[in-house]
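Quick one: structure for this chain?
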Amino acid sequence: MSALVVEGGRPLRGRLRVPGDKSISHRALLLGARAEGTSVVRDLSNGDDVRRTAAAVQAMGAVLDGDRITGGSSLLRAPAGVLDVGNSGTGIRLLAGFCAPFPWRTIMRGDASVDKRPMDRVAEPLGLMGARVDERYPPLTIDGGGLHGIDYTVPMASAQVKGCVLLAGVGAEGETVVRERVATRAHTEEMLAACGADIDVDGLVVRLRPSKLRPFELGVPGDPSQAAFWVVAASIVPGSELAVEHVYLGPARAGYVDVLRRMGASIDVEAFDTLHVRSAPLHGTTVDAGEIPSLDEVPVLAVAASVAEGDTRFRDVGELRVKESDRLATVTSELAALGVATDVEGDDLVVHGGGLRAGAVRSHGDHRIAMAMAVAGLAVEGRTTVEGWDAVATSYPEFEAHLRACAS
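Got it. Here's what it folds into:
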């Protein structure tokens, strides 16, 4: 297991471009495989999560050649073996929806982390649509075909569940309706519309009729969740000034920017997709889960809170317990290893500002915990060691190279 050593106290300067958005990349591969013909997708995320989805659609007959994805009903077939999604919870849940309309059996599993993540949240709606899904946790077996549309209210804030049901709805008989209580990232419905799907969006309600998808062309923008690490780092490392370019800043993806600005951060948006960040003193705030529906940015926002004046409360973030790690537990334990006091009060996380120091921390096999702790190490004098750094390969293999370039 690898480790990253971070020498803190060095200002971050320059410009960088984060990898292609992971959420969009997964969906581009699945829709490219479903569309009738050849699509062109540039700048896919090169993390292991997305490579696993690429391998899965290839195992079902889609043809990938550089930026080109050729798919459609004449090519797709039952996979010969188990589809291994690695560390990707997004991959397994979206693939479940992709596979459900087809009259074959699909078996999917992941690594030790994914195999502990609940799948009932997709098994329930797919079962209501007519698929046979027999497991609460991976390995996940889906016997598909013969689906019908349903009117489904997603019980938690989850773009993965919404996307799963909509991907299944493409091949279901009748209308599929998905209702949300909180707006989540809209990539699935936006990309389905771009593929010619018969789809309507009205606020928190998406209506989809069975559709034949056409090929598309897409340049994947930079991942805002990956950009968040650099935005926080440049905000909390004194003397920093950093530009993060070509970042997707669409609905439900950039709420962390508003949170950081409320804390006192100096963040400007240039040319619609570049975040220009200068270091600034921060103060505590209250963050509602609805501001950052996926909660992916909470670990690094907790690092920002650890150097802020006063306390920061993250409200209703219990969903963090079922991510790649129990992030309520791992954020708390690793910040404690760096001298930061926290409290978990029900589904709330409270971070008490002050006390951050260099030290030794662990990733717990979670890429976002690893990168968040690296950002914490940048903010203080001394040497911080992040054990289990290899977890970062799942989403952002270039992180260490970017860190060295900006902090040299």
